[in-house]
Amino acid sequence: MVEGTVVRVELPPEPVYFVNRDDERERALRAVTEWRSRSRPLVLALSGPGGLGKTELAGLIARTLLDRRPFADGVLSVDLDDFRADGVLDPGDVLSQLLNSLDVAPDQVQAQYAARCRQYWNRTSDANLVLLLDNARYASEVVPLLPASGDSVVIATSHGPLHDLEAGTAVDLALPPLEERAATELLELIVRDHRLAADPEAARAVVGLCDGLPAALHVAGRWVRTHRLRPLSRILADLQAELDEKGVSGVEHIWDTAYAGLSRPAALLYRLLPHHPGETFTLHSATALSGLEPEACQDALEELDRAGLLDLRLLSLTEAGQMRLPGPQRGHALRRSRREAADGEVTEAQARLLRWFVRQAQLADRFTAGRRLTVVDLLDPVPGVPDVPLQDPEAAVEDEVRAERAERAARWLDEERHVLFACSRLAHGRGMDTEVVALSEPVWTHALDHPHQSEVIEVFRRAVDSAVRHGGNAGWLVRTRCQLARPLWESGELSEAEVQLDSAMSALELLGDSERDRKLAASALEFRGMLKGVRGEWSAALADFAGSRDMHRAIPNPYGVLLQTYRMGEASAKADDLGTAHRLLSEAYTGFVAKKRERLIGRSAFALAGVLHRLGRTDEARELYQQSLERADRRRSGFDLARVHDALAELDTAEGHLVEAEEHRAAARTLRRRNGLV
């Protein structure tokens, strides 16, 4: 750069407030430093939905590059949206502006497009510049505008990824939403108001409402600055209404434009996604919701990604392949739905999704827990919508494969639990009683490994209400009341749990003599025994378990017999009859291993280890505790993991291994905090 030369810099002023994005800036600068091509520029491709601050970040990167390297031809900047007519870009017009910026007089710009391209390449063959291309939609819009020099750098922003740029010439800098800490920092910079520190809970709610979108945080900041006398809690409600009704100023028109360019299937899917129960969805559930063929739904999701209305990068973060619309964008999709959805479009879509999701949850339940007592048969497949690719453990020959399939189904239930809870709410509100009761079964299986979740009790309450509302199925009444009783007594609500079990026992008179009804009667007796055990009435509990075992033998139901043997073993241990407890728990453990019941292998091993420890057989106890720990870890059961660590801490303390004991206690404390068990 010649001293005294004025370098052209076509950039707006730096943003007043900008936080985070340090990783993206560092990656960009490192890539430029390492770039070695002589005839082709490096492209820094910044992508993400509107409102994430891509344009501001592009400008900051450009200024930093200019500060660190002598780009003699300066920084040129073009907003490609300024050159669109009915959504179509004319690259010839863009080239004209770029040539003008490169000091080519307007009357010297070539008239024909091909000649203009050659003129631009010739003019930039030795150029040393930074070119910022804002709001690109496709790689094909960027390629004709690339300078013909490896000493230049192109920064392109787009709402979706620019997949077709040649490999090795582009650095993909996909921007995620701001994390909570960075979002809070940005809001504090925008507002600088004591109310944020005075009411941190409300401030966090304001940040959460913006879902990591800087543009939404600026809207929130203006609301806080404008209403200086109002408490944040009042502002929060008004801001929610504002975002729901009007969207994010400065971004809404971007999303409207992107939506207007969608194909009919993609527009349909976008309108329906905000009506998906829960905040997340998957490829499979989106297919069920939309009613599109699977391949058409895949195409629609990819189209939304290209349009910047969805971020498919989230697919890789969960095993279920969950995606989500950020809150402000979800609001935009909801507004489009309210304006354009056909009559019955949303109702039909949700009903179809509910039927499909219930079936998936039933399958995951069966694959996780094995075939067991349930009161709603497996729903039929939804035509045109494939099931989630979970595999039946019972179809596998090898034990490791069986265990892996069961664990995969359990992980699906865990990852989809919030959708499961939301589907229960939606189905209950729609009066779909069969679906509500059916959903309580997979929630039951999930809750055995993850107790004390507040949503669980509400799911079971809705199931009881649906059973009562339906009124024609005594089995539902027995099963749902027993299910509700357990989380109630686990939460200390013993009196209400007893009321539910008394009602369940009364409903037994309405049952018939089918195998399922006889299993229900035996199960109700087991639940009554468990409540007695919670109260410390172990002799009475033992009598109920023995009675339930006799009922299972009479059916006959070998699994039920094993389960009650296990219950009797636990009760005997609590009653200090260690010899009987050892015999019963050994029998149950051996039986569960033979039947390959993963959860009950782990839990019976834990109970048997406790008895062996008390009998002084610590080596055998440690081996079983370790086995129980491994199985709980595979199931991601924080509850079981914590109590096994506690037991191992007690064992290590008794043997004088104090360091190891403290490590186990620390692990148990961490697990309880992480899983909300404290």
Automatic annotation (TrEMBL):
Signal peptide: none annotated. SMART domains: AAA. SUPFAM superfamilies: P-loop containing nucleoside triphosphate hydrolases, TPR-like. Residues 40-181 form the AAA+ ATPase domain. One of its GO terms (molecular function) is ADP binding. It comes from the Bacteria. PANTHER family: HTH-TYPE TRANSCRIPTIONAL REGULATOR RV0890C-RELATED, REGULATOR-RELATED. This is AAA+ ATPase domain-containing protein. It comes from Streptomyces flaveus. The lineage of its organism: Bacteria, Bacillati, Actinomycetota, Actinomycetes, Kitasatosporales.
